[in-house]
Amino acid sequence: MPTMKFRLWSGKEFLQNNVSVLKLIRSEYDDGGLTAEVPEPFVLLRATGVHDKHDREIYEGDLLYGEHIKMGADSKEQRWIVEVVFEEGAFCYGRSGDPLDARECAAYMEIVGNKYQNPDINYGQLD
User: Fold this and answer.
1) The whole model's pTM is what?
2) How many angstroms separate the CA atoms of 122 and 108, rounded?
3) 66-94, pLDDT tens digit by residue?
4) Is residue 33 part of a domain?
5) Residue 76 burial (CB < 10 Å; 0-12/13-18/19+)?
6) Which helix (H) or strand (E) holds 21?
7) Residues pairing with 111 in the sheet
8) Is 63 inside any structural domain?
9) What is the predicted pLDDT for the residue at 99?
10) What is the dihedral of CA 13, 52, 75, 87, to 10 degrees?
11) For residue 10, what are the CA distances in angstroms to 2, 5, 53, 61?
12) What CATH number has the domain bearing residue 108?
């Protein structure tokens, strides 16, 4: 069974994979699945298992900058900043629903911040 990585946003800073983080999380198995409760104001963010072009691990809530990304049917070169979200069982680029692609991230994407520490970064197409 693979180890799940995560980090916890405290409202001021990230806490990452340490014992104090684990003590904050109440988890239990229910119907074969694991549920976790995190007290307010903490936010639990999962690692995607995907890395950016600088080999940094990408987490939920990260903001990715990319060029040459094919978004939908339009395949021309574009520049984007998108938030990584977890929707319908998959990590996706923003709310588009396009699944995070490991090869694309490693080649073209870089983490430029996250939605918690950089709330004023505009998402979407830059061109």
Assistant:
1) 0.77
2) 19
3) 876 555 665 666 788 999 998 888 888 87
4) yes
5) exposed
6) helix 19-24
7) 64
8) yes
9) 87
10) -50
11) 26, 17, 27, 14
12) 2.30.30.290
**φ, ψ dihedrals at 10, nearest 5°:** -90, -5
Those residues whose C-beta lies under 8 Å from the C-beta of residue 79, and which sit 6 or more positions away, are 65, 66, 67, 125, 126, 127
- Token couple for 53: 């072009």
Residue 106, SS3 per DSSP: helix
Confidence (pLDDT) at 25: 58
For residue 122, the one-letter residue type is: N
Tokens of residue 70, six digits:
């094919």
- The structural domain count of the chain equals 1
Domain that holds residue 62: 6-125
For the record, the structure tokens of 85 come out as 């979200």
Report the alpha-carbon distance of residue 122 to residue 118 in Å, rounded.
9
